[in-house]
Amino acid sequence: MNLIETILIVAVGLLIGILFFGVFLHRKKLAISFENVQRESQKILEEARRDADQVVKSALSEAKEESRRRRKLFEDEAKKRKDEIAKLEKKIKERELTLTNKLSTLDLREKNLEEKEKKLEQEEKKNIRLMAESEVLIAKNQKMLERVANQSAEEARKELVHLLEDDARKEVQKTLRTLEQDTHREANTKAVEIISLAIQRIASEYVNDATVTVVSLPNEEMKGRIIGREGRNIRAIEQATGVDLIIDDTPEAVIISCFNPIRREIAKITLERLIADGRIHPARIEEAASRIEREFESMIKEHGEQAAFDVGITDLHPELINLLGKLRFRTASLQSVLQHSIETAHICGIIAGELNLDIKKAKRAGLLHDIGKAVDQDTEGHHSEIGAQIVKKYGESDAISDAIRSHHKDPLLFASALTVVLSAANTLSTKRPGARKETLATYVKRLEDMEELVKKSKGVENSFVLQAGREVRALVVPELASDDDVRDLSYEIATKLRKELTFPGQIRVTVLKENKFVEYAS
Predict the structure, then answer these.
(1) pTM for the full model?
(2) If DSSP states are collapsed to H, E and C, what string results for 16-31?
(3) DSSP 8-state code for residue 504
(4) What are phi and psi of 334, to 5 degrees?
(5) Torsion of the alpha carbons at 325, 326, 331 and 332, rounded to the nearest 10
(6) CB-based contact 276:284 (threshold 8 Å)
(7) Over the range 18-52, which residues count as b (16 or more CB within 10 Å of their CB) and which as e?
(8) Between the CA of residue 120 and those of 108, 113, 127, 292, what are the distances in Å?
(9) Which residues does 199 contact at the CB level (< 8 Å), separation at least 6?
(10) Taking a C-beta distance cutoff of 8 angstroms, is the pair 509, 484 a contact?
(11) How far apart are CA 281 and CA 471, in angstroms?
(12) What is the residue-wise DSSP string for 450-500?
């Protein structure tokens, strides 16, 4: 029992010893850990202090840099302000100097005006005195004239009035005759234009040089094939296309005659297709003509769309596009109406741009201004009125419709700006050099008329037209004209040419007077 107790006591002692030793070791470890933590915290504090010092130094450096930058900006701004102030001071000084000069100039002008006013007062007094003296002299001279002429002043006045009335009556009669001649000539010209336009829109049996188309043939044998047996082919072509075929002695050519340009063009294409195909008989002719007519509608539409595209208009009504395409086959003199319309549209755009007007609206009016010429004889009226109704029908604005209706009116009183632009562009397109071709016969006739007109002038012995009609020289009889008469004669001839003849560009009028004296010494 004692042994067991001893063992237990020893065991308990060992346990207690082991416990105390464990507690001691644990406290030792805790002490070491605490020391490590203190060292680590101290190290962290030192690093934090170093970082804080570095941040403070960096902040101070940045603050100093920002301060220097702002100081530099302030100095630059101050320098700039000083420069501006210096410039303003310089301008002010210059203006002060200018004002000083102006003031001195005004003072000088004021002195001059005062001197001129004094001179004018003196001249006025002198004129009043001279007028009084002249009245006295006039009265004396009047009495003297009454004694010499054995007439009173009232009788002389009545006789003078009678003479002036006779001269005025003669002058009025001369003016009336001139106006009557001009009116008659202008009426004839207008009548010719109206008749030409009416014929242009009607397919007539009568033809001229502008109503035929020549189709070339590959050989003379083709003429017989076109005529056919007993003329059946040529009759089939004329019936299918509505034109007249003229087959004469012209080598390797057939003439298509029809005033309707669209029918003439269809017949031309049909005949060319038949010649290229080689099969020419009535059934084939009717089939080809029908197909060409269908294709021609597409061709007309393409011409209209191309015209609108060239001008820069993309929202025209389809019916207006078709009418524009038909203008491709209408002519004004020898110029295509569609070509004239496109040119007028471009000129309208240029003028409208210079005048700060609506360019697109001006181009639209220029392109559509002759649309009335595309219709046939079924529609009555002037083409401008017809065109205005057509564009109004298909959605164009009132401004464009009114401009088209009024572009041929003269004078353009109270007209809109668009109407004036359209009228000017139309005139420029038709009257510019080269716009309308001139045949040789017309050209020669114009030169002859020019010479004859100059020869009819008083005192002109002979006349010559030079430089293709751009210059006229008149030779006068020296004994019948003085130098002043020659000067007036050149103006008179130029006025006659301008009134009585139509010509492109301008004509230079030169009047020559030459005296030659010959003596012989022996």
Answers:
(1) 0.45
(2) HHHHHHHHHHHHHHHH
(3) S
(4) -110, 20
(5) -80
(6) no
(7) eeeeeeeeeeeeeeeeeeeeeeeeeeeeeeeeeee
(8) 18, 10, 10, 90
(9) 259
(10) no
(11) 59
(12) HHHHHHTSTTEEEEEEEGGGTEEEEEE-GGG--HHHHHHHHHHHHHHHHHH
Which three-class secondary structure state does DSSP give residue 256? strand
Whole-number Cα distances in Å, 389 to 77, 267, 351, 371, 420: 71, 32, 25, 10, 19
Element (H, E) at 257: strand 253-257
DSSP-assigned states of every residue in 201-249:
TS--S---GGGEEEEE-SSTHHHHHHH-GGGHHHHHHHHHH--EEE--S
pLDDT tens-digit readout, 132-159: 887 887 777 667 666 655 656 676 677 7
- With a CB cutoff of 8 Å and minimum separation 6, the contacts of 496 are 453, 454, 457
* 8 A C-beta contact, residue 460 and residue 489: yes
| Residue with more model confidence, 223 or 308 | 308
Residue 150 one-letter amino acid: N
The Cα–Cα gap between 212 and 245 comes to 10
Residues 425, 347: contact at Cβ < 8 Å? yes
Answer for the pair 245, 256: CB distance below 8 angstroms, yes or no. Answer: yes
Compute the CA torsion angle 486, 491, 492, 498 (nearest 10 deg). Answer: 150
Reduced to 3 states (helix: H, G, I; strand: E, B; else coil), residue 251 is coil
Provide the residue type at 347 as one letter. I
Q: Are 481 and 516 in contact (CB under 8 A)?
A: no
**Beta pairing class for 253-257 and 212-216:** antiparallel
User: What is the secondary structure of 166-178 as a DSSP string?
Assistant: HHHHHHHHHHHHH
Pairing of strands 460-466, 331-332: unpaired
DSSP state of 371: G
DSSP 8-state code for residue 373: G
**Omega of the bond prior to 218 within 30 degrees of 0, cis?**
no
Beta bridge partners of 255: 214, 246
In this predicted model, what pLDDT tens digit does every residue of 16-40 receive, in sequence order?
888 888 778 887 888 888 888 888 8
Q: DSSP string covering 79-102, please?
A: HHHHHHHHHHHHHHHHHHHHHHHH
Radius of gyration in angstroms for the set of CA atoms belonging to the chain, rounded to a whole number: 53
> Distance between CA atoms of 338 and 325, rounded to whole angstroms?
7
Give the integer Cα–Cα distance in Å for 110 and 118: 12
pLDDT category at 431 given cuts 50, 70, 90 is low
Edge-to-edge strands, sheet with 508-512: 460-466, 471-476, 508-512
For range 449-462, the mean pLDDT = 83
Nearest to residue 156, comparing CAs of 139, 170, 171, 142? 142
